[in-house]
Design brief:
Blueprint lengths: L5 E10 L2 E10 L8 E10 L1 H7 L16 E9 L9 E5 L14 E4 L5 E2 L6 H23 L8 E4 L5 H12 L3 E6 L5 H6 L4 E4 L1 H4 L10 E6 L3 H10 E9 L13 H5 L3 E4 L7 H14 L2 H6 L1 E5 L3 H9 L6 E5 L3
Parallel strand pairs: 8-9, 8-11, 9-10, 11-12, 12-13, 14-15
Antiparallel strand pairs: 1-2, 3-4, 3-6, 3-15, 4-5, 5-7
């Protein structure tokens, strides 16, 4: 348990258009309002965290800010009847690391209704190996299942497959019995993707190169983390009544597509938001993640770094050089 009067954190400050990141020690009284104080063990590094740490616009809403949209740890103090000292908890989303100080610190004061219990079968490290990426992937799989996707209906494609969301989505879908095709711009990751369960690996150009409004039907379902021309290519090549769960924009926020796949093939574009998803759905997703994803696959997709290496890792994640998941040990 850390000293409960101070905390170590990565703090973002802004002077005009310049955003600076510093490793600092702060009094616990500097923490924002909240009814639960958590001793953080691990956070994780997501694409959004990379943008925040490097001062890219559109993520952090107010400064100073402790980034980190994920955290796992132990309750130190609680004014809520839901949580007691010693409870193990996970927090993802809810604007933490954007509007409210986040997980890249040894202590976090947060709202009790943002927290979910750490499943008994998950260690803290494995929970953050999942983090927002794992939760988002599970929500995508659940959305596809609710639209009728079952094993045996055909290939399911995962775009940006070597990234955090993509890696977990490949493993979840393959583990459920689907024939998974992994799309990536990094052919050197084929071995890694096959180790997660992908039965086929394609270059992303096979999707971005699909320019006609309707292409040959191929995919029974899809998880898209990329957006833009990749998502347009997926939509054009979905099978009749197929669905794509869209959750990312690594390739851009535009969508150069037409309505033809929707009105001539009845396909579904399912938007997946993991930031403000209701607590009951979060709990179902975490229960399934703890149950359905083999722990050896989780361990194979993670790299653990200390808090001091976060800025360098942020550069790597924005350059698209990160495989799987990067977890931050905030105590190191």
């Amino acid at each position: 348990m850390p000293d409960d009067t101070t905390l170590r954190a990565l703090l973002l400050t802004r002077d005009g258009d310049h955003v600076q990141h510093d490793h600092v020690t702060l009094p616990v009284t500097d923490l924002p309002d909240g009814d639960v104080l958590v001793a953080v063990e691990y956070s994780s590094l997501n694409y959004k965290d990379g943008l925040a740490v490097l001062g890219r616009p559109g993520v952090v809403r107010t400064y100073p800010m402790v980034p980190g949209i994920d955290l796992v740890g132990e309750v130190v103090e609680s004014e809520s009847a839901r949580w007691r000292r010693g409870d193990r908890v996970i927090l993802t989303g809810w604007g933490v690391g954007e509007r409210h100080w986040g997980g890249l610190a040894t202590l976090a004061r947060v709202r009790s209704d943002w927290l979910v219990a750490l499943p008994d079968s998950l260690t803290s490290l494995r929970a953050m190996t999942l983090g927002t990426a794992g939760l988002t992937a599970m929500l995508c799989v659940m959305a596809l299942e609710e639209r009728g996707l079952v094993p045996g209906t055909g290939e399911v494609v995962v775009t940006g497959a070597a990234g955090g969301v993509g890696s977990v989505a490949v493993a979840l879908l393959a583990g459920a019995g689907h024939a998974v095709t992994a799309s990536t711009g990094r052919p050197e990751e084929e071995g890694y993707l096959r180790s997660l369960g992908a039965s086929n690996v394609i270059h992303r150009d096979e999707l971005t190169g699909l320019k006609r409004p309707l292409e040959k039907e191929r995919w029974a379902g899809a998880v898209d983390t990329v957006g833009s021309t990749t998502l347009a290519g997926v939509l054009a090549s979905l099978k009749r009544w197929g669905s794509v769960a869209a959750c990312g924009l690594a390739g851009g926020s535009d969508l150069p597509a037409t309505v033809l796949p929707f009105i001539l093939r009845g396909v579904n574009l399912l938007g997946v938001d993991s930031v403000e998803v209701p607590i009951e759905r979060r709990e179902r997703a975490w229960t399934r993640l703890a149950r359905d994803l083999p722990h050896d696959l989780l361990d194979a997709m993670v790299r653990v770094v200390p808090l001091g290496e976060v800025p360098a890792e942020a550069e790597r994640i924005l350059r698209g050089e990160v495989r799987g998941r990067t977890v931050v040990d905030v105590r190191a």
